[in-house]
Amino acid sequence: MRHKRTQLLTEIQQKREKMIETAKKNGMASQETVRCSQELDQLIFEYQCVIKREKEQKKRMRISLRQMILSWKKAVV
């Protein structure tokens, strides 16, 4: 997952730079600038989804670990 997050951050930065260059060259309302902006939005959305999945996975792991610890404590007592 971290590889995907790093890859997306790189793509976001590259797309942001391309969008800025395109806006300077062709204007903010040009088709190419708008397309870059939409692609950037999509990359940001994907990044947010990856982060959300990572948080949910960590939460599930913590819950599983707590359950395992409680089961172990009951077995020992």
Report the uncertain regions. none
Count the E strands: 0
Biggest sheet details: none
- CATH topological fold name: MYOD Basic-Helix-Loop-Helix Domain, subunit B
Output the helix-strand order.
Answer: HH
Total count of helical runs of at least 4 residues: 2
Please state the average pLDDT score: 92
Q: How many separate domains? A: 1
Helix content: over 70%
Going by helix content, strand content and strand pairing, the class is mainly alpha
**CATH architect. name:** Irregular
Identify the overall geometry. rod-shaped
Describe the model.
The chain has 77 residues and is mostly helical. The protein has one domain (1-76): MYOD Basic-Helix-Loop-Helix Domain, subunit B, CATH 4.10.280. The chain is 92% helix and 0% strand. It contains two helices and no strands. It has helices at 2-26, 31-76. Helix 1 runs antiparallel to helix 2 (31-76). The protein starts with a helix and ends with a helix. The mean pLDDT is 92.
Topology of helices and strands:
Elements lengths: L1 H25 L4 H46 L1
